[in-house]
Amino acid sequence: MLHSKNIIIFKNDAVGDLSQSLNAINNIINHNKNNNITIYLSERSKDFSFFFNFNNVRIKIVKYDLTIVQKIKIFLFLTTNSIDSIYILTPKNFYFYLPLFFKKIKFFALCINSTKGYKRPSKFFRKFLYCYEVNDRETLNKRKSTMELQKDLTKDLNYNKKFTLKNLPKFNLQDLKKIEIIDNYIYFHLKISNFKKLGWGYYELKILFDEFLKFNKNIIFTRDIEKNNEDIDFKKDFNVINFSNGEVILNKSRIFLYDNLVGSDLYHIINNADKVIAFHGMMTNLATIENNPVLDLFYCEINSISDFRRYKNALYEFKPKYNGYDFIVPSKNIQKTIRKMRFSLKKT
C-alpha cells in the first residue's frame, strides 16, 4: 500500500512575490494530488490563501521575517514528520541551513547571486540542495524572470501549466443590495508615497482620472490601507464604498473609491477591469496572474549606478511577457506622463 508523501512549500513573502510563484506552486500541487502539501505564507499574503483551495493543501501563516519561535517550530515539525520534498521559493537564509540537518529530504530552491560576489546561499550550502535555480542579479544582461525560474525549478513534475484560479469566493459587494455592480471600468491604485515622490497631489489625481474617462465609462480606484496622513476628502468628488464598515456615499460621479478592499474582493475588481493602472507592485502583479491588460507605472529614482542596477534587476525579475502588458516610467510632469500613457489607454 502506497503512503501519501508530505511536501512543504516555503513562501512567506509579500503578495506581489507570491503571485510570481503561483505557476510553480500550481505545478507542485497538481503533480501531488494524492500527497499532503503544507504551504507557509506570510501574514502579508494570508488574505490570498484562497489561491490554494485544494483538499490536500494546508496553509500555515508565519511572519514575513520569521521569529525565533517560528524557526524552532519549523525545525521541530521537520523532525517529527516524514517529509519527502521541500520547495524554498522564498530565499531566506534560515531555510538554506535546513538541508544540513535533514539530508533525507529533497530540497528544491530559488537562489540569488548579487553584486560583489554575494550569494544566497553560499556555494557550500548549495551543495546540499537537491536542485536549484539562480536569480542572477549580478549580471546586467537580460535574463529569466523569477516566475520563469520557479517554473524551471518544477519542470520535472510532468505538469507545466499556467496557474488558473478555482472556487473564487463570492464578491462581498453583492451583500450591499443598493449598490449596482460596476462594469466597463479602469482600475487604478493610488499609492500616496509615489505620488509624493513625483510631486503629485489631489489635483494631479483628478487630471489622471479625467484622462482615463476619455477611454472608459467608469473608474474604480483603491488606496493603500495604512493610515493616510493627507486624509483627503474623496467624498466631495467621488463615490465612496467602504468595505470595512459598509458605508456607502454615492453621487453622480463615474469614479468609485472602493476603500479598505482586500483579499478576494480586491482580486475580483482587478480581474474584471478593462485595464489595470498602478505603480509597479502588488496590484500589477495580481493583474498579470490571468494576463489582464496592465499599464505598469514603473517609478524610478536613479541617483547612482547601484540605483540603476536595482531598477534594471527589478524589471528583469518581475516583467511579465504577454501582449496585454505595457509599462512606462512616469515623469514628474503630469502632462508628459499622460502622453506616455495614451498608447496603452487607446487599447482599452
Describe the structure.
There is one protein chain. The chain is of the alpha/beta class. It folds into two domains: 6-157, Rossmann fold (3-Layer(aba) Sandwich); 172-225 and 232-345, 3-Layer(aba) Sandwich (Rossmann fold). Helices cover 32% and strands 22% of the residues. It contains eleven helices and 15 strands. Strand 1 (6-11), helix 1 (15-31) and strand 2 (36-42) form a beta-alpha-beta unit. Helix 1 (15-31) runs parallel beside helix 5 (146-153) and helix 1 runs parallel beside helix 9. The chain is globular and about 65 Å long.
Structural domain tally? 2
> Main β-sheet: number of strands, strand sense, barrel status?
8 strands, mixed
CATH architecture of the largest domain: 3-Layer(aba) Sandwich
Helix content: 25-40%
* The CATH H-level homologous superfamily of the largest domain: Glycogen Phosphorylase B
What does the overall shape look like? globular
Return Rg in Å: 22 Å
DSSP strand tally? 15
Instruction: Predict the CATH topology of the largest domain.
Output: Rossmann fold
| Distance from first to last alpha carbon | 56 Å
Tag the structure with descriptive keywords.
single chain; 348 residues; alpha/beta; Rossmann fold; eight-stranded mixed sheet; 15 strands; globular
